[in-house]
Amino acid sequence: MCGIVGWTDFTRDLSHEHTTLDRMTGTMALRGPDAAGSWLGPHTVLGHRRLSVIDLEGGTQPAVEVTEPHQEPVVLVYSGEVYNFRELRATLKSCGHRFTTRSDTEVVLRSYLEWGAACVDHFNGMFAFAVWDARREELLLARDRIGVKPLYYFAYSGGILFASEPKGIMANPLFHPVVDEESLPVLFNARLALPGETPLRGLREVRPGHVLRFSRSGGHEYSYWRLVSREHHDDLDTTVSTVRELFEDIIDHQLVADVPRSAMMSGGLDSTIMAALANRRLKAAGEGPLHTFAVEFAGDEEDFKPTELRPERDAPYARLAARHLGTVHHNIMLQTADVLAAVPSARRARDLPSLGQFDSSMYLLFQAIRDQSTVALSGEAADEVFGGYPWYHDERLVWRDRFPWIGDAPRLADAFAPDLHRRVRPAEAENDRYLTLKGEVSRLPGEEGLNARMREVMYYNLKGPLAYLLDRKDRMSMAVGLEVRVPYCDHRLVEYVWNVPWDMKNADGRWKSLLRLAFADILPQETLDRPKSGYPGTHDPAYNAEVMRSIDKILSDPLSPLHGVFDSQRVEALTQSGSKTMTWLNSSHLVLPILEVDAWMRAYGVSLA
């Protein structure tokens, strides 16, 4: 895992831009604490920071291949893991390629040399990479199918900047951070962002499953992968066995590393399945038992209040699962003071407005995991792929023609100042994004009723909330030099389950039936029966009071960058409404973005236009 940056400009000579490139590359130091490298050419410069995971001695980047007949270089900077790199190396050897390292970096470079931009079709993994091909005078940017690894860019006349994180682009003086008014709904609810969209003017992400090619004629981004709806012909037994076979193979591939591995395990269905398989594989290889981790908050026994999305505490279930599986388990106990103290570090890792305690607690959890291992498995995406969230099972929300995961919940944008609210029209902005995604759904001819609607519902979650969760996972883990792998994001599994009808996904009448049926023999009954519970947060009244005090100060501060954005009476009405929703932990959780956006705008000098 690594951090990459780069700059292509056909209107100037970049070969002397050492200082700017070093500044951009330096922002990736936490993502790659083990090594740094750079490459400078007349119209492109590339920077890389490395976290060594595979072939610790090889795999140096930027990786360069000088090609005939005119000795033009092809240069790669790459972040992520291609899990099928061993199979691809064998294929490439049969095509005449010779290898000097054991790294997947060299496999990616030689795959490009063999197949060009179509190399992405051959990769199974999480990746973001850039190739400068001097033969074509073309920069190629590519991102994995699900969007596990980030890749941002800023295009301008004659040039383009890119980086694994926005801070890499912000380190170049050509970029100025500005938020336009029409982007405010996304700024305060990042789950509304369409693929590729950010709240900053001109800053984009390469969309998941896309390639961007940039040359003298400009840039062109196109899709190389998307979900396609097809008839599912397997019966239930075959479907269940296929899910198991696929996931076992995925775990096998994602355990490949030359460094210690571990897993996050909350005691829920998804993470316990993942940990059970990983533990078996490591023990069989003589490398076990697996170390597993869960987060716990001091005072939870007294302060915890169940919500629909978080009905129970994780810690007791995690301990039970660990005893059943035989893992070495670590419950990371967090104090409120530590969670608050870690917020600035988590904000810096995020680059965009953070989730406050949800980011900082994950940051601290990953710090603890990093003390034991360099690679950790995580259960992200199982709920989106298999149908685990409660809003998948609430008919009122399913059939409402809007995002089911937000439903009738209060929107923070409803508290905008009246004039701003009239100009921005946040309800229309939300509906526009909903209709845009609805128009993208791959339909199955003849499919109707609940099966057809659930295909839409699952697509919304894959494109909005999942993207945000993966972004958070990447930022908080890479900020401490930890590589987090997400087996449920393997595109083969996503493709297969996408086409399983909803009535089969819900075969036993409970959430995530396919997973429960596929792995019932290896899990404790308590895990099999446990309802979905989201990533936890602290319920400490002192934390909530501190958040509300900070927001009150912001709303009354004429120097705040958010001065005039909110109507304080409307904000108070939101917090006092007592409205219960599936997603918000409490009222301070609902209004927390005010605090985080204010802090972000101040720290990065972001202006509002």
Automatic annotation (TrEMBL):
Domain of life: Bacteria
Annotated active site: C2 (for gatase activity)
Top EC category: ligase
A biological process term (GO) from this entry: asparagine biosynthetic process
Pathway: Amino-acid biosynthesis; L-asparagine biosynthesis; L-asparagine from L-aspartate (L-Gln route): step 1/1
TM helices/strands, residue ranges: none
Enzyme Commission identifier(s): 6.3.5.4
Gene3D superfamilies: Glutamine Phosphoribosylpyrophosphate, subunit 1, domain 1, HUPs
Binding site for ATP: V295, S378, G379
Any one GO cellular component localisation term in the record: cytosol
Database matches in InterPro entries: Asn_synth_AEB, Asn_synthase, ASN_synthetase/amidase, AsnB_N, GATase_2_dom, Ntn_hydrolases_N, Rossmann-like_a/b/a_fold
Binding site for L-glutamine: D104
Residues annotated as site: Important for beta-aspartyl-AMP intermediate formation: E380
Domain Glutamine amidotransferase type-2: 2-217
GO molecular function per UniProt: asparagine synthase (glutamine-hydrolyzing) activity; ATP binding
UniProt KW keywords: Amino-acid biosynthesis, Asparagine biosynthesis, ATP-binding, Glutamine amidotransferase, Nucleotide-binding
Catalytic function, reaction form: L-aspartate + L-glutamine + ATP + H2O = L-asparagine + L-glutamate + AMP + diphosphate + H(+)
Family according to the record: Belongs to the asparagine synthetase family.
Name of the protein described by the UniProt record: asparagine synthase (glutamine-hydrolyzing)
